[in-house]
Amino acid sequence: MTDQFILAEGVSRSYPSGTGTIAALREVSFSVPAGALVALVGRSGSGKTTLLNCIGALDQPDAGSILIEGRDVTQLDERARTALRRDELAFVFQTFGLVPMLSAAENVGLPLRLRSEDPAKRDARVEQLLDLVGLADQAKQRPSELSGGQQQRVAIARALANSPRLLIADEPTGQLDADTGASIMELIRSVVRSEGMTAIISTHDASVEALTDQTLRLADGRLVSSAA
Fold first, then answer.
1. Distance of alpha carbon 70 from alpha carbon 7, whole angstroms
2. CB neighbours of 196 closer than 8 A, spacing ≥ 6?
3. 100, 89, 152, 162: which is closest to 125 by C-alpha?
């Protein structure tokens, strides 16, 4: 992990609030090497989600730059940002966001259907991913028939469907109990390694740091530490 995958310099983002503004991010700068699993930690309101949204081209900073593999995502037009999110990034959130009437396999295969992937290749990829997340035997079950931890595993498998270069996870264990959350984090670490991705995961759980390669710590919108 020597090549620089993410380079953020002077990233700031403010939002209007009443008669003033709230500074969600204040001149945040850091770098992440390729293949790293990164924990983004801080209290609620520290700016974690805003930073992830800026990295993932879901939001635009007011100032600064964010380079992913040398490309400044803050300078892309909307079409290029959409293509970036579709083809190179993957997102996992607290809420699992599964389609209730679809089976686990159908949920995982949905991104591939949207890309009109060859059915045989799609089915093979779905089978591979469900096996990777330990749900090969639950392929036909719908979300309502799965536990919270299993639903998050399906969400992770779906995020990996298009073989993304970067996984962005915003509090992926936030709705899970401690033991299930720990197993999900172990799973994320495993799939990051097996899929050859870089990943950045926001969390308020200090125990997550032990599983990652690097920790970025935010407080009041500022990066207060960056440690490998």
1. 8
2. 35
3. 162
Question: pLDDT at position 207, please?
Answer: 74
Using the structure block, give the residue that is written with the tokens 């536990």.
147
* Of the candidates 38, 37, 42, 39, the residue with the CA atom closest to the CA atom of residue 26: 42
Helix and strand element counts for the chain (H, E)? 6, 10
Q: At what angle do helices 178-195 and 148-159 cross, to 10 degrees?
A: 20
Give the E-state strand segments of 36-180 in sequence order.
Answer: 37-41, 63-68, 71-72, 89-93, 166-170
User: Model confidence over 9-20: pLDDT tens digits?
Assistant: 999 999 988 778
**Closest to 134 (Cα-Cα) out of 108, 114, 110, 170:** 108
Backbone angles phi, psi at 137, to 5 degrees: -85, -10
Apex CA 212: angle with CA 225 and CA 218, to 5°? 25
Would you call 22 helix, strand, or coil by DSSP? strand
Q: What pTM did the predictor assign?
A: 0.89
Q: Which two tokens stand for residue 175?
A: 């709705």
Strand order in the sheet with 222-227: 89-93, 166-170, 198-203, 37-41, 214-219, 222-227
DSSP state of 2: -
Neighbours of 19 (CB within 10 A): 5
Say if strands 37-41 and 63-68 run parallel, antiparallel, or are unpaired.
unpaired
CA dist 87 and 173 (Å) reads 25
